[in-house]
Design brief:
Urease, subunit C, domain 1, 2 domains, four-stranded mixed sheet, 35% helix
């Protein structure tokens, strides 16, 4: 099957040989063609160029973009979208003045989600997650990382991993699985230490041998897991081939960033609180800082200092943190707007953070994130726009005309 898109006003992020990621001043670079075409065949990008250079293609489908623009589809490198139910009551609690930590202390938060998920049949869990993924694809998402962490016991964590595997098999987009048993301490464990030992001794070997997880994650934060505990979990997971993608610095900075980098974390996520020591550590690493502005918006906490990170020469990716408690939306179009409005990223920087850098944060930089021959034909066709800035400017409006996955309209 082949599809040809013609008369593209702007074809954004075109590369013959794309970099694996962008950092610092290069994040403002966005190569594009004006009045362009894009040819996709057998699920891959096969050719692109100016309309004036278009040779005749024997395409099964032709789409006349009629002045609309085209860009790579979004990549979401941090979600928790497999869950049993919403936590809308906690939303009301926050309106009434309770903090995220207050809600967790009284038995809500992650433990609330775990209690519901443990009793939910696997088939129902899959169906609910499948519906969420469908909606995200419709609004431009072409690759998704999904974490466990709402089971907190081996059976339930494995149930989540099986659901993620079923999602991988059902959809034709890239889906990555992250094992996050170290998300909170379940009620049946009296101490954090005893639960950490259980994760290391009993859970990681089973998960590793199952082949169901791509990554390991730890919520390194006061009241959850400290730096030493995170390090021990990461060391154990490395023996089973699980690379870290970690939660750090959401509310406090106490050494989690440097430790995650020491253990070759692919991404370092949240970073609402950062210090000069954290920035120095990230400068000397291949780890991708990932900001989650939807979480900051929903919880009313500080936004990651994306402007500072980029000005310091660092890369940055953006993700949704889609979850029922602190970011109940996977809409990366809104994240695009938040990054520009609240984090002071330029539209070019934000687009790079949602595509090429987000792909890197999932280990997908070879196949996703740019318009490059041989990469996956996952693209967004916008509504008619005058310039890229129109996309984040019109926040809350649907600025997408069509989404193509593997070159096919969805």
């Amino acid at each position: 099957m082949s599809t040809l898109i013609t008369n593209i006003k702007f074809l954004y992020q075109v590369y013959d040989e794309p970099p694996k990621r962008l950092a610092g001043t290069s994040m403002s670079e966005l190569p594009y063609l004006q009045d362009a075409f894009l040819f996709m065949k057998d699920g891959l990008i096969a050719d692109f160029g100016l309309m004036s250079d278009l040779n005749k293609f024997d395409a099964d489908h032709i789409i006349n973009a009629q002045g609309k623009s085209v860009l790579p589809a979004w990549c979401d490198s941090h979600t928790h979208l497999v869950f049993a139910q919403s936590r809308v009551q906690e939303f009301v609690d926050r309106i009434n003045g309770l903090s995220y930590q207050d809600i967790a202390a009284k038995g809500g938060g992650i433990l609330n989600s775990a209690q519901a998920l443990r009793t939910m049949p696997e088939d129902l869990l899959f169906e609910s997650a499948k519906n969420r993924v469908k909606k995200l694809i419709e609004i431009g998402t072409s690759a998704i990382e999904i974490k466990t962490g709402y089971g907190l016991d081996l059976d339930s964590e494995m149930k989540m991993l099986r659901v993620i595997k079923r999602l991988k098999d059902y959809f034709s987009i890239a889906i990555k699985a992250t094992f996050l048993a170290a998300h909170a301490v379940p009620k049946e464990f009296l101490t954090t230490e005893s639960y950490v030992s259980h994760i290391i001794d009993d859970m990681i070997p089973v998960v590793g041998s199952s082949g169901l997880a791509d990554f390991i994650d730890v919520f390194c934060e006061k009241g959850y897991f400290n730096v030493n505990q995170m390090e021990r979990i990461l060391i154990a997971a490395a023996c089973h081939g699980l690379q870290p993608k970690v939660h750090v610095n959401q509310f406090n900075s106490f050494g989690g960033v440097a430790t995650a980098i020491k253990h070759n974390a692919l991404s370092i996520d949240h970073l609402e609180i950062i210090t000069e020591d954290d920035i120095t550590a990230m400068k000397n690493s291949e780890s991708m800082p990932v900001a989650l502005p939807g979480c900051s918006f929903f919880l009313g906490i500080p936004y990651t200092s994306g402007r500072k990170l980029i000005d310091e020469g660092l890369p940055l990716a953006l993700a949704s943190d889609f979850n029922p408690g602190s970011s109940p939306s996977g809409n990366l179009n809104f994240v695009f707007s938040l990054a520009c409005i609240k984090m002071r990223l330029s539209p070019e920087e934000a687009l790079n953070a949602l595509t090429i850098n987000a792909a890197y944060a999932m280990g997908l930089e070879q196949s996703h994130g740019t318009i490059t021959i041989g990469k996956k034909a996952h693209v967004i066709i916008t509504q008619p726009i005058e310039q890229l800035s129109d996309l984040p400017y019109h926040f809350g409006q649907n600025m997408i005309s069509n989404v193509l996955i593997n070159g096919n309209l969805i």
